[in-house]
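Record 1 of the preview.
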Amino acid sequence: MTHHHDRLLIIDFGSQVTQLIARRLRELSVYCEIHPYQNVSESFLEEFRPKAVIFSGGPDSVVREGAPRPPSAVYELGVPILGICYGQQVMMQDLGGKVEGGKISGGGGTAEFGRAFVTPTSSPLPILKGWFASGKEQVWMSHGDHVSELAPGFEVFGVSPNAPFAVTADQNRNFFAVQFHPEVHHTPNGKTLYENFVRLAGFTGDWTMGAYKDDAIDKIREQVGDKKVICGLSGGVDSSVAAVLIHEAIGDQLTCVFVDHGLLRQNEADEVVSMFRDHYNIPLIHADETELFLGELDGVSDPETKRKIIGKLFIDVFQKHANEIEGADFLAQGTLYPDVIESVSFSGGPSVTIKSHHNVGGLPEKMGLKLVEPLRELFKDEVRELGRELGLPESFIGRHPFPGPGLAIRCPGEITREKLEILRKADAVYIDQIRKHGLYDEIWQAFVAILPVRTVGVMGDGRTYDYACALRAVTSVDGMTADYYPFEHEFLGETATRIINEVQGINRVTYDITSKPPGTIEWE
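->
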């Protein structure tokens, strides 16, 4: 738990958008943590000492017996509380008001889903400063139940057609409650509401990446002491930032192991080795195991089998080289805060598996190593900001995500050296095109997949029988859902011409316009 910053506690009641609340607050330089309601006890509150509390939304009905509740002690902390959707309802129910069940929970109340417009009552409210410039505000509603009677001390400050208690507050206790979701982009002025709330709570905006960097360096030194740390380096943003941060803390006590499985993009291994060994002077083992990986993958076409082979070999190779480092007590990983949130999920389910290029699965226990995870309080955009604080080149910080199995899953069917070489060249041309047109930072991820089919073509006066490839580019916030990027036809035509002219072995180029869902971002 961080103790160097003012802290805001988000009590999670199971909303699918609780992470968005945290993102909005972090953008305001406010440090916050999400904790499931069942983990928030009176002793937890005493230790955490929040400066303010937010109750998230949730799918349950407060009128159901046994429905989720916060501990009663939270209302006695004397700090501002903001209840959102289910959070509003649970606050009313706990403090003496009433909630009426909607059709979903067996009541006769009116549900409300989607866009709605809130209008103010006559009284102003501090957290609504900057709202209602046009007389009303668009918000996003998503509730079956609704408040039917306010708790004592509360007043109404905003109404919508189906929510007569859309905004309520007890100003004497600084308790605020809204029926809508200010964290989603369908509530355009939601950020202002959060801004007003944290200002009223007295937050000074002391959560900066500069301050985090200094704190993290102190923590790493305290945790590691004079022992050694090994770090599995993929060349991706998370492991790169973690490695540079740890190196700044403990210098040559860190050794990075970069497993080159022969499935990287063009010049990628050279770039990673050059940056870490030459630019940062970080001790680095470059394990070039191309022959081993490609040998084991020879003749394999099933995508899941490919992943399992690559994952097992990666662990074997990493362990072999890590064992050469005497006195290594710690394994560094680029675990991020969304991974941590998932692992202590609202439902209390088992931890999810963190992505393969972050988590060298099972190794900490197998090798008797303790974990160093200096990014575990950060979201992805904060990791990029920390990378800038540490002076990493923008070319590394802004990189698109790259899968742990590398080009193996962009090469459906059997993997051959010839296909990998063709794929690397085509991908390099495509990314060069995207950069030249100034589109790289607009796109979440872009790559080429080489298809397991050959097609007839004509080049010059001759007939060709070469591979077809598919271009893929998507926009996304978190990779969970994605839309294809709407390139201009001129861009696609120009790119196809370049690939066919510059890459021997491809004579047909297609563009994949599938969204996720129903497709996935990667091809395998």
